[in-house]
């Protein structure tokens, strides 16, 4: 049986981080793109970041790309949404991190749900797979053709996590998907033919234990494809990108998920 899991209010939670990204903005192909380059400038191991619904300008994803670059990975964050990402201000009205979520009143929760239900569905229709996947595929092809590029990986978050999985059908050399949604389980995983790593939170509001079990089962049969699935304790959907750095446990989960991706690409893009 297939389980379809989609973007919910939990996906739109958490924090905008305050540090200043250090990369540059360039046009790659036809897309405005944030670039974080390693110290030696090598493009040999290139990684395409596929953002969540908040897009390429969210400071959090740029700061993460900066960290990947410090590990020797040449990073691209393209404006996949063509200037139509959900505004960062929208994030602040959504569900807070897990440690404060239970303190919300029923009225506040109802308001959040109403905001999501009127804003998110039209955006998802506008940026449906038939529109977004060709843009992503074209960008990956453009990166492959850049002189000095040897292997290409992709990391995706929430909305972008599913497209990272789809890219692992053969468009990239390795992929890392963080709390992917919307995701059809197990159908979306069956065609995976390239090394795939996944990071999930055990408090994800729409990837329940049954869905996680189906993901594990779908990957287990791929004995010829390197894969891993890590489930992080007490972490909600979106934790790898937008968790609360002020909490030790949440910060540790973010740090470990960051290293999960870096180590995966350093291994399979070499």
Automatic annotation (TrEMBL):
Q: Which SUPFAM superfamilies match?
A: alpha/beta-Hydrolases
GO: which molecular function terms?
hydrolase activity
Organism expressing this protein natively? Amorphotheca resinae ATCC 22711
Q: Which InterPro entries match?
A: AB_hydrolase_fold, Dienelactn_hydro
Q: Report the protein name in the record.
A: Dienelactone hydrolase domain-containing protein
Q: Which residues form the Dienelactone hydrolase domain?
A: 32-268
């Amino acid at each position: 049986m297939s389980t379809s899991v989609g973007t919910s209010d939990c996906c739109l939670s958490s924090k905008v981080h305050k540090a200043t990204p250090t990369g540059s903005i360039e046009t790659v192909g036809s897309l405005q793109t944030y670039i974080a380059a390693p110290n030696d400038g090598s493009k040999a191991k290139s990684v395409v970041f596929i953002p969540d619904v908040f897009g390429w300008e969210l400071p959090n994803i740029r700061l993460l790309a900066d960290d990947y670059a410090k590990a020797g990975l040449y990073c691209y964050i393209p404006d996949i949404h063509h200037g139509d990402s959900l505004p960062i201000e929208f994030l602040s009205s959504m569900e807070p991190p897990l440690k404060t979520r239970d303190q919300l009143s029923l009225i506040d929760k109802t308001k959040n749900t109403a905001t999501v239900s009127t804003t998110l569905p039209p955006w998802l229709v506008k940026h449906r797979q038939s529109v977004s996947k060709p843009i992503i595929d074209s960008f990956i092809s453009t990166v492959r053709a850049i002189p000095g590029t040897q292997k290409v990986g992709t990391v995706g978050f929430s909305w972008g996590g599913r497209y990272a999985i789809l890219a692992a059908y053969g468009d990239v050399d390795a992929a890392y998907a963080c709390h992917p949604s919307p995701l059809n389980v197990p159908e979306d995983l069956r065609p995976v033919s390239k090394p795939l790593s996944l990071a999930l939170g055990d408090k994800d509001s729409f990837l329940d234990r049954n869905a996680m079990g189906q993901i594990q089962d779908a990957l287990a049969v791929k004995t010829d494809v390197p894969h891993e699935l890590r489930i992080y304790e007490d972490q909600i959907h979106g934790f790898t990108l937008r968790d609360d750095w002020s909490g030790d446990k949440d910060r540790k989960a973010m740090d470990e998920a960051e290293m999960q991706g870096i180590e995966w690409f350093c291994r399979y893009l070499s």
